[in-house]
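As a representative case, we now present a protein record of this kind.
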Amino acid sequence: TWKWVVGPMVLYLCERLVRFWRSQQKVVITKVVIHPFKTIELQMMKKGFKMEVGQYIFVKCPSVSKLEWHPFTLTSAPEEDYFSIHVRIVGDWTEGLFNACGCDKQEFQEAWKLPKIAVDGPFGTASEDVFSYETVMLVGAGIGVTPFASVLKSVWYKYCHDATNLTLKKIYFYWLCRDTHAFEWFADLLQSLEAQMQERNNAEFLSYNIYLTGWDESQATHFVVHHEEEKDVITGLKQKTLYGRPNWENEFKTIAGQHPGSRIGVFLCGPEGLADTLNKQSISNSEADPRGVHFIFNKENF
């Protein structure tokens, strides 16, 4: 038995040593951005740090807790000269980080007063395979939208640099959330992409649908009054917010009809129940003929 146990234990110890060494490397916070509804963006730099789209890191702030490590999805693109995370203030640790960064103060915070941060990672996810397909469906539920911030930013950088060599030709993006106000920073990113794609006369490259699954009577009244306006009253985007949940069977059949004979990547970051639904739809809408349309399902659950 010990012969079978020793090998994996040695590998595990080596992996822990590597992670400890990486976590001791110096991390510099270059910028702290306060977004609406108590969400902060930390932009950081670390020597030798290399990332891919959709990856995540573990973060420790010793001034808040010397032992706690928390996972955060990277929201920056590999093409940017920094890496960033978005943190929503929802608990004691995130509240401590918010205060340590001076976000609770009105005056400008000096860089040398920012707290020390330890970073372990990055670690890979299924989202890294996005650029292997010509057509993809990206589905983010709630906070699961964060990996796709990195993906969409990277797509834009690649598109601007050399669109002819970009394998990815069409993105169908679905965002399901109970309250869009908590993720206004992401709506801002979509606005920027929407405007830039229109400037380049390629608005069809990115097709997105935002579904609001939780809304109250005041929102309904506001929606009715402003329904005829050019831009959506909630997100400010040209694409109007939809209410309820998508009819996934219709969505898959429509996309399959528009891309016959294609391999379509389906990427989800969301709950297990939604993963089961999308997996079943991917299987049922894929053709038995190798030359037909095939949906390849990839998931990242939280």
